[in-house]
Amino acid sequence: MNELFKLSLTRHFVIAGPCALESFELARDTALELAAIAGELGLPIVFKSSFDKANRTSVTSFRGPGLSRGLEWLGRIREESGLPVITDIHLPEQAGPVGEVVDVLQIPAFLCRQTDLLVAAAQTGKIVNVKKGQFLAPWDMQPAVEKMRSVGHDKVWLTERGASFGYNNLVVDFRSLAIMKEFACPVVFDATHSVQIPGGLGSASGGRREFVPLLARAAAAAGCNGLFMEVHPDPDKALCDGPNSWPLRTTKTLLKELMAHWSVPHEC
């Protein structure tokens, strides 16, 4: 069994990093800081960033460096930081080359029902983290899991990231963490996208990052296996998802608090 997946079955872990690969230096420096935090706290951290954000609100929005350069950067970051790496894929043909570089392939929420994408990701043999669509109930994620298990793949994480509540708003039903655990998958809570205001700025999404600690604490108390956070050295200047990203400088403090919540026994 994949060692990272085995770890995720028995220990709490964190997925963290800038939304998109803005530059190699920014991503590497963020990963090195996260690696230092992981070592100090004894908390497994997976570095996250995207080579292409294909679902941005506007056609003029920053998307990232693209597949070839992005994978080069992610490979170097993985080697220099010592952290495992996760990144998004949007097309089935991306699964193979991405799976050769990273430890975890992520399926964006908007694409969580795309059969060919799920199967292609599963066939790499790497962990696949599927983000629950904002438009789905937690029990609707079971078919996504079954699609991957149909090709003999069982290394699956499921991530809760809020559900659409009217226009430009998300709410979190924390029952979904327990419900999705029934599918025998580690369950992750996305504390930063859950405070997003989709399309709230007209040509971009807004967010209320001040609520990230509140929701993260609730998810830890509810028994999530892992926590997802987009972090950035200067969120107000981030080229992607800045309003809902968490400042890197206060990440260690928040994670220490969450570890205290995780240390309390949970029934679900």
Descriptive report:
The chain has 268 residues and is of the alpha/beta class. It has a single domain, classed as Aldolase class I (TIM Barrel), CATH 3.20.20.70. The protein is built from nine helices and 13 strands. It has helices at 3-10, 24-41, 67-81, 95-99, 115-122, 142-149, 175-181, 212-222, 251-262; strands at 13-17, 45-48, 85-88, 104-107, 127-131, 156-160, 163-164, 170-171, 187-190, 196-197, 206-207, 226-232, 246-247. An eight-stranded parallel beta barrel has the order 1-2-3-4-5-6-9-12, surrounded by seven helices. Strands 7-8 form a two-stranded antiparallel ribbon. The longest helix is centred in the first third of the chain and has 18 residues, at 24-41. It is globular and about 40 Å long. The two termini are 24 Å apart. One of its GO terms (cellular component) is cytoplasm. This is 2-dehydro-3-deoxyphosphooctonate aldolase.
- C-alpha Rg (nearest Å): 17 Å
> How many angstroms separate the termini?
24 Å
Strand order, biggest sheet? 1-2-3-4-5-6-9-12
Order of helices and strands: HEHEHEHEHEHEEEHEEEHEEH
Strand content: 15-25%
CATH topology (fold) name: TIM Barrel
Mean pLDDT: 94
Largest sheet: 8 strands, parallel, barrel
Count of separate structural domains: 1
Low-confidence stretches: none
Number of strands: 13
**Helices and strands: which structural class?**
alpha/beta
What labels describe this entry?
alpha/beta, TIM Barrel, eight-stranded parallel β-barrel, 9 helices
